[in-house]
Amino acid sequence: MIGFEGEQVGVVRTRDALKRAIREGRDLVEISGNAKPPVCKIVDYGKYKYEQRKQIKNAKKNATVVKVKEVKYHANTEEHDYQTKLRHAVKFLDAGNRVKCSLYFRGRENAHNELGFDLFNRVIEDLKEHGYAEQKPKLNGKNLSMLISPHKAN
Asked: Residue 118 is part of which domain span?
């Protein structure tokens, strides 16, 4: 048991700990129920719950949310369009987001899916300064997709 001031009281029977908490006008809260013996603390329960909510709120505030942005290509993407999509991918990666590159083969393009793999290998090569291929190009039916993640900030 831990007292109200944070001092170690020692191993105490539950009945005695509860009596002590009532005598002090506080609550007995189980902090770690899996420990042998379980750890309890004498606290003001309302203040305890308030501090827990505050910690959770601060953890959410400081958490970084990584989004997945998508850049769509075609098998016959021209150079200017390729450079524009590449600039968008660089901007997304520099912002800390992951980039999903996708390519949909239409009609007879599916017979030449190596063009899509060549395009995606070129994308990986051009983006290697900003990120790495977390998921290599993968063909699912008529869709070719891959995932690029930003490099870890040092």
From this structure: 68-150
